Amino acid sequence: MSKGYKISDSLRIRDQRIFHGEKQLFFSEKPGQEFLKEAYKFLEIAYPKFHKMDALCKLGILATEILFRNNEISADTALVFSNSTSSLETDKQHRILMETTVSPAVFVYTLPNIVLGEISIRHKLQSENAFFISNRFDAGLLKDYSEILLDSLKTSAVVCGWIEWKNAEYDVFLCLISRNGEVPFSVEKLEELYHFENE
C-alpha cells in the first residue's frame, strides 16, 4: 500500500559522469580523484575542508551539494546510505601508514558513516542517519528504513541511496524522498533509477 511518499529528486555519479535526474550535468575524462577535483571546481563549491576528506566523503559532498541546491532542505532531513565495501580503501591506506606512523587525518575516515557526519556538518543537518553494508544495491532495505523514519515523523525528508568507492572507481546513486513530487517511492522505481544508463 502506498504511503504517499515520492522520489522528489535523484542523482547518479558513475563512469566519469554526473547525472541529475536523467540530464547529464558533468563529464570529465580524468579518472578517480582527479574526477572528484574537476567536479568540485565545476560545481563552484567553496568548502576548503573538501580537499582533506577521503574519496567516499568527497563523493557524498558532491552528490548532496547538487541535490540540496535544487531543493529546500530542512535540518531534520535524514540520511540513509549503503555500500558493499564500507571504508575499505581508507582502511587499506591506514594499514600501510601504521607501518611507520599513525595519521589521525586518515584514521578518522576508517568508518563509512563519517560521510554522513561530513554532509551533516556541511549542511547543518540535525537528523537521523544510518549507513548499511550490503553485498549489492538493496532497494528494499533503503525503502523500508526510509519509510520507518518518515512514518516516525522524526524527519520530513530522507536522502537515501548507494555510495561506493573501490580501486578509484565510484558508483553513487542518491535520491531525495518526501511527500513532494510525481515519482512514487517504490522498490521498482529505486531499482530503475539505480540501473539507469545514458550513453
Task: Summarize this structure as a short list of keywords or feature phrases.
199 residues; 36% helix; 7 helices; eight-stranded mixed β-sheet; Peroxisomal Thiolase, Chain A, domain 1; alpha+beta
Helix content, binned percent: 25-40%
How many domain regions? 1
**Overall average pLDDT:** 87
**What's the assembly state of these chains?**
single chain
What is the CATH top level name? Alpha Beta
| CATH fold-level topology | Peroxisomal Thiolase, Chain A, domain 1
CATH architecture: 3-Layer(aba) Sandwich
Structural class label: alpha+beta
CATH superfamily assignment?
Answer: Thiolase/Chalcone synthase
Describe the secondary structure blueprint for this structure.
Layout: E1 6-14, E2 17-20, E3 23-27, H1 32-42, H2 55-69, E4 78-83, H3 88-97, H4 104-107, H5 114-123, E5 129-133, H6 139-151, E6 158-166, E7 169-178, E8 183-184, H7 187-194
Parallel strand pairs: 4-5, 4-6
Antiparallel strand pairs: 1-2, 1-7, 1-8, 2-3, 6-7
Helix pairs in contact: 1-2, 2-5
